[in-house]
Amino acid sequence: MEIRSGITRLFRLPLHKSDLARQEMDEELALYVEERTAQFVSQGMSQSDARAEALRRLGGSIEDTRKRLQHSAARREDHMQFREWWSDLRQDLRYAARGLASKPGFTAVAVLTLAIGIGANTAIFSAVNALLLRPLPFRAPDQLMSITMISPAETDRPGSDNLPWSWPKYKVFQEGQNAFQDLALYSDDDFNVTDGDPERVNGASVSGNFLHTLGIVPERGRDFSPDIDAHANAAREVILSDAFWKRRYNAAPGMIGGKIEIAGEPHQVIGIAPADFRGLSGHADLFVPITTSSEEDLSQAWSLTYSLIGRRKPGVTVAQGKAAAELMGPRVYEAYRSGNGNTRPWGSTARPLDATRTAPLLRQSLLVLFGAVGFVLLIACVNLANLLLGRAAARRREIAIRLAIGAGRGRLIRLLLTESLLLAILGGAASVLVAWYGTHLLSVLNPDTALRAQRLDGLGVAGFSTIRLDNVALAFTFGVSMLTGMLFGLVPALQATRPQLTETLRGGGGPARHSHLNAISSRRVLIVAEVALAVVLLAGSGLLIRSLTRLLKVNPGFSADNTLTLRLTLPPGEVSRDSLPVFYYDLLDRIGGLPGVTGVAMADCPPLSGGCNGTVITFPDRGTVALNMAPDIGIHTTSPNWFTTLNVPLLRGRLYTDTDRLDQPRVLVISESAARTFWPNEDPIGKRVAVYQGGFDAGATVIGVVGDVRFNTIDSIPVADAYASYYQAPRSRLMLFIRTNGNPSLLAGPVRQAIHELVPAYPVYDIQTLSARVAAASAHARFSAVLMGLFAAVALALAIVGIYGVMVFAVLQRTREIGIRLALGAGRGKVLRMVMTEGMTLAALGAFFGIIAALALTRVLSAILYDITPSDPATYIGLTGLLGATALAAAYLPARRAARVDPVVALKSE
Amino acid sequence: MTLLKGTLDVLVLKALSWTPLHGFEITCWLEERSGGNLSVDDAALFQALHRMEERGLITAEWGVTANNRRARYYSLTSRGRAHLKAEAAALTQYARVVTTILAARTS
Description:
The complex is a heterodimer of chains A (910) and B (107).
Chain A: H1 5-12, H2 17-42, H3 47-58, H4 62-102, H5 104-133, E1 144-151, E2 160-163, H6 167-176, E3 180-193, E4 199-206, H7 210-214, E5 220-221, E6 237-240, H8 242-249, E7 259-262, E8 265-272, E9 286-289, H9 295-298, E10 307-312, H10 318-335, E11 347-352, H11 360-394, H12 396-404, H13 409-445, H14 448-453, H15 471-496, H16 501-506, H17 512-553, E12 563-569, H18 580-592, E13 597-603, E14 614-618, E15 632-638, H19 642-645, E16 650-653, E17 667-671, H20 672-678, E18 688-691, E19 700-706, E20 721-725, E21 733-740, H21 748-758, E22 764-769, H22 770-777, H23 779-813, H24 815-823, H25 828-857, H26 873-899, H27 903-908
Parallel strand pairs in A: 4-9, 6-8, 15-20, 17-19
Antiparallel strand pairs in A: 1-2, 1-10, 1-11, 3-4, 3-10, 5-8, 6-9, 7-8, 12-21, 12-22, 13-21, 14-15, 14-18, 16-19, 17-20, 18-19
Chain B: H1 7-16, E1 21-22, H2 23-33, H3 42-54, E2 58-64, E3 70-76, H4 78-103
Antiparallel strand pairs in B: 1-3, 2-3
Helix pairs in contact in B: 1-4
């Protein structure tokens, strides 16, 4: 009577499970009714009465009863099938885990390969997602557009389609257009918060509907009222960021309605922004209405300061929005047309806000890196396929035995597949760690500041600090890792379960060799592909590294060692213009007297930062020119000793001195480029010029020529610059350059203290060593080169592991053959050469295809390379050498093993 | 005499505690032991069997009857045995209490 469930189940297998359940139940119930009927008949009922009674007792008919019971039966069946499936799976998993544990070397390499390949991809994908793809964190961000003014190219100056607005021009635009439901102006500004401990804070000057346009509602308090834009000198109101409110004011609820002091003026806090909103820059802590400015400031039509964003009306397309903006261009131009009519008209245009999120150069670098990391993944997959193929080949005999003793092919494939899937899951899990760490590094690496210095910043809201390991990237990771496992597990599994049984069981010799050769040759193809992919990455990273070294060799025009820099801005009116020189003396004197300080100088703008002042220059002795046709010149204000402190060489003439004061004739020092541009064949010393800033428009004399200093990005060529003395052009904005004989960072405290004693209420900020500024200037190039170098190193390592693995395997397979050769008198040197040649042939083939691909692909790099062409021969020679050397090493070890084969042992084996 | 609600399960378990039985064997066993005083509700019996199988108190396997017919034989699991022990004790106790109360004379 005891029949094991496994056997009874065999009979039922062909049936669908609901049919099965019904049939079984009918059978059981029918038997019951029969026996009941028999009982009643034996008690004297007629057959038909007995049956009717039996059925009645069961509840009507077999059909009805069964239906009542069926539901629970079907569930029971499900449960049983799941249990069986699960127990099979557990068995497979146990077996697979044992298999992997018995080959720790293979498992480690495979898991590591996957972890790096997939992890690096996920990290870069996260970066691409944050910087390029993820929708901007505002309501309906696709309705938002950035609206800019267009200036046509003039003879001496390129045109631009990306110019900001002035308040009056914005008003003209606003009143004339009807494509946008909301328009808002903003400009990123720094504010001195002067209540309590003075602090310099990032913020934004905004029009009243700025938050409303972005769809942001203050978390507490209220938004600016729209009529705050109505007139200048508006009520002093401010909205704080949540972070700033918590940090500086300990999230005091009483702050709303209370006052804070900005640049000495009390402002009423009317609201707190939502926690994740910090303006379009991503780091604003304050929002202050633009209209708190004076009437005079607001009426400057050519003071192009503010960025304009607009939200399209529903139903207005991007193209219609752009057309509407372009239509307004001439009207805005006509409204504030400058006096002389010989400039070409300005225009305006609009593009989706999303298109401005990342600077094109950065976008390109990211995409290049994304492509590169895709190559790494490809190599990792090829490597894994290679490893699995090798493993399947090595297990051919074991699999043959299993097949011979009756294991089903499907079951075996499932077993092998489980093993590769387990490997993929392990790799996937490890890759999450790599991805998490990589993403973390990318987000704290945060080159935003450096990028801003290089004019590569887009919208800060989509900046590096917003990079997170996101769900999309995680799903992507797991998808790729499972797919890899399936694909590269299935192929070897199919191949391995298809051997001619007897041949394989008999041993290494005979026709079975044929399939071994097959396995080896498909692995050789994979190796060539792997090397080729690695070569492409090596070429890319080689080019970026060479470009970086060239960039680092660029002479910025000054020496940066042991110098601390910091900014100080005096509020306008705090120190009167006349007493500024005295203030400068005091300041320089006080800091110069600190221990360890060997020199201290001032300038209004640090080198390599971009964003310095510029104006136009005219030459009184060459007749009059319209100002808008005059050439551009950069204008810098420095203390007289700035040049000597920073080792900027004096080439001709003299520098200004402390005695060139306000009451003395105006003098200017110019840069070498200015001298070459404006006086190509003359000595500029003593020439009269007018420079339209700092009171030099009435004329000044050129007294000296100094070496070029790169004030813009490190890779932009130097332009014409002029220098004026702080004593002849007093300014309240200044940066201190303090040279020391030790570590400049240690001076920050004492210097801050000294300044605090002199002007207690105003913050010192942007404290950095000058060498940090220089390093930041090449941060973008460094970022790309380092990541690309890392990818190439991983690729090379994987390719080398691949070559090594295949060669070891090939030597093992051929032990017998090598033994025969040695026994027949082949020299060991010859065997060594034979194996090495084979390894090197694979590497050479890979290099050949790789270089062809690299020459085609590295062209995408040309925009981000500095002073080097994508086909730079030195790079290619270098990478060939590197690849050759490592391939040689990878082939040598197996070759030496082959040469040491003992013919006697080799022939006896098998 | 019909059964009080909830007692059928325990009785079925008791029947199965001797040996595995198929459906009608259980009915016969119960009717025999009750001296013919009990008539089993066939529909309720099957509900009980399915319910207890689902709860893992009993399991079913196909076997062959003395007449060479295929039949589902139910047997007790260890969980079912524990359940039977606990329920039987509770039910016996319950019956005793009820008897005591009903036997009491008003004094």
